[in-house]
Amino acid sequence: MQTVMIILEKALPVFVMLALGMLCRTRRIITREGVAAMKTFAVNITLPAVMFSAFASAQYSAQSLIVPLAIFALCVVMLLLGRVGCGLLHIPGRLTPFLCTGFEAGMLGYALFALLFPGAPTASFAIVDLGQVLFVFTLYKALLAGQGGLHGVVHEALHAPTVWAIAAGLLFGCTGLYRALGPSGVSGVIDAVAGFVAAPTSAVILLTIGYDLVPSQIDWRRTMRLAALRLGVCAVALALLLAVNHLLLGGMMHTGALALMLTLPPPYVLPVFADVESERADVSSALSALTLISLLLFMALTVIFSA
Fold this sequence. Notes:
Number of strands: 0
Oligomer: single chain
Number of domains: 1
Radius of gyration: 19 Å
Largest sheet: none
């Protein structure tokens, strides 16, 4: 009974917020413009506060730099596996291999990690996320943008509040400035401000995701092929990553953070790069389906890590 209550404590808030998001859409409590404003608020204000706090408070060493490098390399391998898988399964589309790599950590991962591991420092997830952030904002988007699109990718990265928040957090954490300010109480004030700004992140993000989830509009037969490919690649990647973490890195990476990361859907920005309307619809449907699957896998993780 106690295990059931622990699982409900972690999983129920997620599904309540998703249900509220769906209710806001069906009852027109919030308009589409209102949800867009909430997403902007989360991505540009509350989420950067989460990331700054996580990276500033993380413990850094020369050895810890291996973690983001390993995740970056893994994302490249997943992209290659996606290309091979699309060829073997005869799945067409320029964007389909990109469904097999990258993770929506910002709009979903941090919210779920905080619910799954309420006592763990967010830095445990942030250091894993850093590698895929570097991948998404460099190689991933550059390949998606195609020829002549690199300037736009660089411009977007330089104007993204999350990137600046990560950079500021790394500066405070890597230089030891955050810890040096501890005795004076300044770090405590920074934590209080960042924590207050970051507090609504999980609820706002999950509500906006629920608003956009319309299962009845998904072409499940076509979409499940793409979802199966993504899940197969993620399963191989997770097995590889856990082996590397255990055998080569001595368990340096948080196992729960790794498991959660590999269950997340691809970056939500992917449909923006679709230059064919039918492919945009397929990718959007796949993202919706993979988000639902991710939330079901999140429930499975609550069972595993509550045992």
